[in-house]
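re: that chain from earlier
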Amino acid sequence: MRRVNIGLTEEQRKGVSHLLNQDLSDAYLLLVKTKKYHWDVVGPQFRTLHLLWEEHYTALTESIDAIAERVRSLGGYPIGTMEGFLKLTSLKEHGGDVPTATGMVSNLVDDHEQIIRNLREHIDRSSEEFHDEGTADFLTGLMEEHEKMAWMLRSFIEGQALEGDGSQPVAEKKTPVGV
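^ sequence. v structure.
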């Protein structure tokens, strides 16, 4: 096998590849959740969310391929199994759970925001610890994609109060003034 000689040590390339495999794992789990919600959403928001999530999972599929190719360009091998993805992901599955449409949106916002936080850390580590500006730039582009998707999802539920589990709160009874 030909040695990779791109100005990074093997240790640097392995370190960056590990970060990228974590990002790949998060993106893959998010893809699965987005597709599942695309299938399961019901209610008045069905068409809007069904179409939005189709756009999102299409973009996520492209990102996943780009991440895997970045790992290969560094001489590494991308994770390619569900077992591997589940070991490295920072996201949580919601197996067997079919939340309301708003709950689905809220879960996806949480996941995108977690990925954004992870990407910020990975950008810094790629640049500062591993001296790989190419990967830092690549991850910045991914972060911007997730920021846009999170913004679109947040905009959908903006102004609606949500409980921690993504459900609508029970309406509060207002006490009349002077009672």
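The chain has one domain: 10-156.
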